[in-house]
Amino acid sequence: MKVLVINCGSSSLKYQLIDSESEEVLAKGLCERIGISGSMISHQSTGKDKITKEIDMPDHVVAVQLVLDSLTDKEYGVLQDLKEIDAVGHRIVHGGERFSEATLIDDDVIKAIEECNDLAPLHNPANLTGIRSIRQIMPEVPMAAVFDTAFHQTMPKKAYLYGIPYEYYEKYKVRRYGFHGTSHSYVSKRTAEILGKDYKDLKIIVCHLGNGASISAVKNGKCVDTSMGLTPLEGLIMGTRSGDLDPAILNFLCQKEDMTIGEMLNVLNKKSGVLGLSGISSDFRDLGSEASKGNERAITTLEAYYYRVAKYIGAYTAALNGVDAIAFTAGVGENNADGRKAVCEYLGYLGIEIDPDKNSIRGEETVISTPSSGVKVLVVPTNEELAIARETAALVK
Ligand code: AMP
Fold it and tell me: Were both Cys, which of 33, 118, 180, 217 would link to 225 (CB 3.0–4.6 Å)?
């Protein structure tokens, strides 16, 4: 089955065409600056040259049409006919409490996703635009919604409630939801497979450390806690997001800086994290190279980042009452050996020992702990698109 996986942002659209039987990526690409001047599409069919075109994309319907045109282009496409696309899988950021698993899309599901818009005002409307654009152009193709929040819906109440008046949960559903669920699910399952153990027998901590970053605690195949909250702003220090902070800081800084709450939230989402702390970059390669030259702010930023990751691992070890495996994934988790080493240095009390040779790998599935380590530590590259394609194919079959 050929599955088109779509990840629609407010001004971007990422896609992959995946053969769900061979799990091969047939083509992938990205539309950028949709609705803004200078829009571009880059497309690559496997085994062919990558093409990049600057082309007007006033809205997502035009972008989706360009994606479909690229997939069927005689020269650089992979399909003879759009009818070869058997299903479309959409990444949807927020499924609220309604969706604890992926689902086929119908009018009722679209309405339910819409009802979650105020929980993810930047993401869900954009995701819905992707659904509507495909529907407009290919009304017959079955579509599935795969939610970032779904995997975390197994969290117990004690983990997802905030210490605020309960009526806010009842009236507005203010609670922890968690994100990156597709990645946490994929990586925790893969961890069990790599270790040759039953997923249902393991306590696993997944560290998804990318530009956005979150940690989850997975017990017997179910998520029991995760670091992101009502929105992706909570938890770890991230590329540009602050992560955890005293909520009183918001009002304090608004007054000092004469900003509205909306403006300050923009600072916390887009100008904070390692970018804001270092004043250098949100990219760990830049921070690593500055730190190696002795730049104090880069060094302190990295220390604060790794310290927070280690604190969460400690907290989740308590939540799980022990841990069998810790998996690192996403851009920083997969590629940054110094970072993994720095985090694991805090974990000697768990009997963790890292093999420096194995830890020097990048982006490959590897057990990086020594055979005698008290806890297995792994690098497991995430693959959210493949996970979405799998879920979509399973629903459509
Ligand atoms: P992601 O959001 O998963 O795509 O991760 C993106 C982030 O991964 C980038 O902003 C970098 O900070 C980090 N990253 C990617 N490659 C490397 C690398 N080779 N070394 C260190 N960090 C990396």
Answer: 217
